[in-house]
TrEMBL record:
PROSITE patterns: ALDEHYDE_DEHYDR_CYS. This is methylmalonate-semialdehyde dehydrogenase (CoA acylating). InterPro entries: Ald_DH/histidinol_DH, Ald_DH_C, Ald_DH_CS_CYS, Ald_DH_N, Aldehyde_DH_dom, MeMal-semiAld_DH. The keyword Electron transport does not apply. GO terms for biological process: L-valine catabolic process; thymine catabolic process. Its EC number is 1.2.1.27. Belongs to the aldehyde dehydrogenase family. Pfam families: Aldedh. Signal peptide: none annotated. It comes from Coemansia erecta. It comes from the Eukaryota.
Length: 526
């Protein structure tokens, strides 16, 4: 039955337009994006809709509803009801669902990746990476039996204490635009595998991949109501962070929304984990492998048009390493800016004209404040896509920490270069930055690398590695201004976030019936 559902998924008769490049029931091309409530894709009764535009062409791909309060209430009700039985489902069944889901996602990789290109703009290979990095979280959840193992100890004669990890109930996930598959997959598979039910809100700018994932959940037999997808922006977020049925909120996105969501969710008594913005530094020492360091920086600064929370947006050149900047400019210049489906494209458009405008203004501010724009991507020509939100790779040299281009998260293909005299100065710069998502060092000196690793105040450290996002046997460990909360996404931390630890102490006396009298002192079990 399951096999049938999966193979049918790939045929147009089962899911309208499920082939590569064609949209599914959940989001029809030029049509509307449905809600996914209680196992069904339903048309919203919303009076307000948000256009999703292809960032390379401005064509309207779909329209996303601002869910009505009634729809949100129905979704929460469905998740609340489903929790009663889903939490009782055996762990082996939930593990099996994760295995089935990973198989389904793998089989629909191209379809998901094409949806990401159409709505988010990234190039096809990178869109596959977006799906793959999320898929790895699903794969890790096939090991949920191991993650949920507890402890047990005989603490006194005939008395045992053991731990049980229990699901919380209904949890919510609120997603950003830049990883339309990976970030939903950081959230709901961990929530579901641990026995929770979930209300997922994809970004209103690119919900297509999340809808396909919901469809795959339905087709592998994840019960109705266990995953629901709702849409909208602020009002939907305020519902998810305020409704008493929601026990925990996972958020990934920008600082403004994140602070609001963290404060609102926690003030309503919910757990909250919130990954926010970033300004990731690469410190380059003159003893580094020159070619490797330059390629790593160029790839990590301009890949995904710089719209990654772990993009390297600041390169700090120590001493003579500054002489490598012209080569960085040359390699950046050679990158091909084009539509995401074009052969050989290295970077696609930015998400919106507003994002392009903001990045362009920050480039201008760098020039106005005294930095040198060595490579200026503004006005880049992409003949086949004259209406796209394209910004070519941009390299700013001679920046200081006081400049806007350094202070602000640009979230575009812009590399800000700072020159310093020593590793001490580089560390002081990185550590004084308000963000702490990631930082990398490029060097061939073990002692410099070790010193960097132990003194740098960033949550994810790369040593000769440009984007050190940990695989899901670890957790995503941003810190400082890049994270609010205390329990990170995915891995063991993710399992902790979505579960409540219970300790049970049981006493099964061998000599039942022997009267002992009431003990009024604190039991010490000795
Ligand atoms: P965003 O904050 O604009 O939107 C994220 C989500 O919050 C969306 O679902 C949106 O509907 C909602 N939202 C936006 N403004 C809101 C408000 N004022 N009140 C309530 N809800 C609101 O973020 P984005 O532009 O979609 O994503 C880019 C940002 O996400 C960047 O800052 C990037 O660094 C960050 N990000 C961080 C990580 C990480 O792991 N640290 C990962 C990916 C993206």
């Amino acid at each position: 039955m399951k096999q049938l559902a999966l193979s049918m998924l790939r045929t147009p008769s089962r899911v309208a337009g499920a082939g590569v490049g064609v949209r599914s029931l959940a989001t029809k091309a030029g049509g509307t994006t449905k809600l996914f409530i209680n196992g069904e894709f339903v048309e919203s009764q919303a009076s307000e809709w948000i256009d999703v535009r292809n960032p390379a062409t401005q064509e309207v791909v779909t329209r996303v509803p601002r869910s009505t309060q009634k729809e949100l209430d129905e979704a929460a009700h469905s998740a609340e009801l489903a929790f009663k039985s889903w939490r009782r489902t055996s762990i082996l069944t939930r593990q099996r669902k994760m295995l089935d889901l990973q198989h389904a996602i793998r089989g629909n990789m191209d379809r998901l990746a094409h949806s990401i290109v159409a709505e988010q703009g990234k190039v096809l290979g990178d869109a596959r990476g977006d799906v793959l990095r999320g898929l790895q979280v699903v794969e890790s959840m096939a090991g949920i039996t191991e993650y949920l193992l507890g402890h047990k100890l005989e603490v006194s004669a005939d008395m045992d204490t053991y731990t049980v990890r229990e699901p919380l109930g209904v949890v919510a996930g609120i997603c950003p635009f830049n990883f339309p598959a990976m970030i939903p997959l950081w959230m709901f598979p961990v929530a579901l595998a641990t026995g929770n039910t979930c209300l997922l809100k994809p970004s209103e700018r690119d919900p297509g991949a999340a809808m396909m994932l919901a469809e795959l959940c339905r087709d592998v037999g994840i019960p109705d109501g266990v995953l629901n997808v709702v849409h909208g922006s602020h009002e939907t977020v305020d519902f998810l962070t305020g409704d008493p049925r929601v026990r925990a909120v996972s958020f990934v996105g920008g600082d403004k929304a994140g602070k609001h969501i963290y404060e609102r969710a926690t003030s309503h008594g919910k757990r909250c984990q919130a990954n926010l913005g970033a300004k990731n530094h690469a410190v380059v020492l003159a003893d580094a492998d020159r070619d490797h360091a330059i390629n790593a920086i160029v790839g990590a600064a301009f890949g995904a048009a710089g719209q990654r929370c772990m993009a390297l947006s600041v390169a700090v050149f120590v001493g003579e390493a500054g002489d490598w900047i012209p080569e960085i400019v040359e390699r950046a210049r050679r990158l091909r800016v084009d539509g995401g489906l074009e052969e050989g494209a290295d970077l696609g458009p930015m998400i919106s004209p507003q994002a392009l405008q903001r990045a362009s203004e920050l480039i201008q501010s760098a020039a106005d404040e005294g930095a040198t724009v060595l490579l200026d991507g503004r006005g880049v020509q992409v003949p086949k896509y004259p209406n796209g939100n394209f910004l070519g790779p941009t390299v700013i040299d001679g920046a200081t920490s006081a400049m806007q281009c350094y202070q602000q998260e640009i979230f575009g293909p812009v590399l800000t270069c700072v020159r310093v005299a020593s590793l001490d100065e580089a560390l002081a710069l990185v550590n004084s930055n308000r963000y702490g998502n990631g930082a990398s060092v490029f060097t061939q000196s073990g002692s410099s690398a070790r010193r960097f690793q132990s003194e740098v105040e960033a949550g994810q450290v790369g040593i000769n590695v440009p984007i050190p996002v940990p695989l899901p046997m670890f957790s995503f460990t941003g810190n400082k201004g890049s994270f609010l909360g205390d329990t990170n996404f995915y891995g063991r931390a993710g399992v902790s976030f979505y579960t409540q630890l219970k300790t049970v102490t049981s006493h099964w006396r061998r000599q039942a019936g022997v009267a002992e009298g009431a003990a009024v002192h604190m039991p010490t079990h000795t």
